[in-house]
Amino acid sequence: MAAFGSVFMPQMALSTFDGEGWSNITHVAADQLSLHPGAHVLHYASTCFEGLKAFRHEDGSVHIFRMDANIKRLSQSSRLLSLPSFSADMLETMITGIVRHYANEVPVPPGSMYIRPTHIGTEPAIGKAASPSKTSMLYILLSPVGDYFSGGARPLRLLLEENGSRCAPHMGMVKSGGNYASALQPILQARAAVNADQVLFCPGGDVQETGAANFLLIDGDEIITKALDTSFLHGITRDSLLTLARDMGMKVSERELSVDELLERVQKPTTEAALSGTAAVMTPVGTLIHNGTEHRVGSGTETPTITKLRGALNAIQWGKAADTHGWLTKV
Ligand SMILES: *Cc1c(COP(=O)(O)O)cnc(C)c1O
Description:
By secondary structure, this protein is an alpha+beta fold. The chain is built from 7 helices and 16 strands. Helices cover 25% and strands 27% of the residues.
């Protein structure tokens, strides 16, 4: 099976902004892009993206999960990067148009069609280090993906990092390339030093998120995660899982969680911890590494609540449970 996100549909949806208006949406070859080497994005990182999925139901119909939330977030990222604005309607038309074009290629569950809207500043202007790009390009790539857990769900090892941060604090809510570049060295160092899968950034002792996923702690019938502020990425999977947890009668605590409290709570044999994000929905965390000490999370292997919550979310996505929150858009 090809690595996640390495296979693309041959065409993508495209629209460009020329400084005054958006071009008509076209479907063009997805394996090339014409860009001036002086384009703003290549020098000053005016880039943001989204990740969402389309699912095939048993009757053959295709449904996109929480598209409105991803559209809102790309608009927000674009605004915070001073990229040209676009209407939600235009982006929705682009997404549904290209997904409809490849409706027959959407894999059956547990596979799906991963959708990657991308917005970049294209103005050839290397003098614009401190000004926005007047022109931009918006395109939608599609990538069919299989079962994220096909190799089995090995619980993750996370290094708790209290001194560094994932990105500059005012960039936390922007789903932008520069933030991933910023987190890469800490992650590579953690891999080399302690064989960690990811770094859980905890600036000043405040448990925040990893390089590309939110962090959730489950203690009995309580689910604890950092309250929304501008310092981190507001995951749509996070929001969906919290909503389902409330539906199940769980107590949802969105608040500050310190490293000290986290390390104390994971000692209970029933505690569970997870990362949440569109790609894998919910991945169990088995080990936290802090100041050279390894802390097992709960039993280290039994994660019934994570299995239940992930199952509830997948059931809606796959059309096996009622979509009571109106999260699916049929294409
Ligand atoms: C994309 C992303 C998430 C998860 O967001 P979802 O909407 O749940 O996919 C969390 N943190 C970061 C830094 C991300 O880039």
